[in-house]
Amino acid sequence: MTGASLTRTTAWNALAQHYQDIQGQHMRDWFATDANRFERFHLQAAGLNLDYSKNRITAETMKLLQQLARARDLPGQIDSMFSGEAINRSEKRPVLHTALRNFGNREVLVDGVDVMPEVRHTMQRMEEFCWKIRRNQWRGFNNQPFTDVVSIGIGGSFLGPKLASSSLKPYWDSGLNIHYLANIDGTHITEILKRLNPATTLFIVQSKSFGTQETLKNALACREWFLNNGGTEADLPKHFTAVSSNVAKALEFGIAEENIFPMWDWVGGRYSLWSAIGLPLALAIGIDNFRDMLRGAYDMDEHFRSAPIEQNMPITMALLGLWYVNFFGVNSHAILPYDHYLRSLPAHLQQLDMESNGKSVTIDGYQVDYHTGPVIWGGVGTNGQHAFHQLLHQGTHFSPCDFIMPMCSHNPIDNFHAMLVSNCLSQSQALLQGKSEEEAVAELMAAGMSKAEAIVTAPQKVIPGNRPSNTLYFPKSKPHTVGALIALYEHKVAAQGFLWGVNSFDQWGVELGKQLGSKVLSALEGEDIPQHFDGSTNGLVRAFHDMQNL
Ligand code: F6P
Description:
Blueprint: H1 10-22, H2 27-33, H3 37-40, E1 42-45, E2 48-51, H4 59-71, H5 74-82, E3 109-110, E4 113-114, H6 116-134, E5 148-152, H7 159-167, E6 177-181, H8 186-193, E7 201-206, H9 213-228, H10 236-239, E8 240-244, H11 247-253, E9 260-262, H12 279-285, H13 287-306, H14 313-327, E10 332-337, H15 345-357, E11 375-378, H16 389-394, E12 401-406, H17 416-433, H18 437-446, H19 451-461, E13 469-474, H20 479-500, H21 508-524, H22 535-547
Parallel strand pairs: 5-6, 5-7, 7-8, 8-9, 10-11, 10-12, 12-13
Antiparallel strand pairs: 1-2, 2-13, 3-4
Helix pairs in contact: 1-4, 4-14, 6-12, 7-12, 12-13, 13-20, 14-20, 15-20, 18-19
Bound molecules: 6-O-phosphono-beta-D-fructofuranose.
């Protein structure tokens, strides 16, 4: 399936025509004339509910979008992913993070070999490891139990576990403090280590490749700190573990073989939370809760594989996103969790979506003649309401929003949660309804303004409305729900990549920065500035040298 022909499909052309027909219509009128719009555009899957009625769609829109999905053989492409075809063609790899949460009896074949026994064996090792640490069977060098775990990793080896850890904070029952060290910034490592006792600190070096500059540098610095503060070389195996698909490099670094948990080439970094990369989380919440999270993801996998296109939640969200990007010319999408525990969701989805679908050529190497992945942004509600929501309501751009809302709180004090929900619902309502000029004039006059003055002031108060949003809701942020939620977005992103015909599973754009980074570092560290550096980079390198002694 290539992307080159996307804009020439009958379904695409029908959508382009349909866009002309409905783009001037207001959702307000659709709600006024259809008492069942909420039920009509509503889905349930794996414990999640999706209200997508506040979108610029009619039944005809959905029918045409679903036709496009069929024209792109979306079900066939989804099957190819689950069945282990090497759909990541530029890296010649299958895409099988779903095997990590395969609770069914299905074999998952890679090069003819079932990977499930190895997956289960690794889970068994994780369980034993968690048991020993959480029950204080495995202790630090002076026989004290561990109090702190430092997870060293970046990108997918950081964002997923961090999101799940903060999402599931109410389930932390081990007393361990979990710290995530990602950035190559002396400040980050200093601030983490200064609070820790080496004798009671466990390190997990998390790197699929075991070649990522930031992670290796941070890991070496932690090792140094450990050795300079009471630990000995002989104590290292008690305190340093690793998760990697590059066992040789982890061994070379000095991690004891029995402390290395495997990863596999067929798991992309941004999809690796479900593997041993999730260890810090499993240490915090216990392996049973970790398994519940995997089961939530598995339930979403089964839904994605088997639900018809019309009832398929990830596919529906993918099609809605495509509708806005390709027909409304929208280039961003906001993620708005109304749950403090889910506050890291926008950051995780930024990597998931933008590293996956920030692509300009099709999987066959043709330049696309349509837009692909949008900019993902967002933040936790209600804080965002007092910051960036102004642009959502009255800006010249419009950004479709996903409101994400647990209906019950883990911390039910007073009427806080009803107030939080009321904010969430009133934001999506305001985006939909807006405020007309007549309403603004009437409001101003009711507040005591003269009609003439009200007419002059009213344009400032007009809110166009007709701005689309999804509302994802569920009872509570539990392990199963969080697993289903993250998997939902994984599949939405994969489905969009399949529709756009891009490879959502490589990330070559990231590599250029890595290659140039080492040349710039040489220049900063005193070697000659290479001739081919541009004038700006030269100037900044000189400024770095000049400012060292200020
Ligand atoms: O920055 C690119 C990237 O390759 C991500 O895709 C990945 O999650 C991250 O770096 C970390 O990679 P690794 O786990 O190999 O250290």
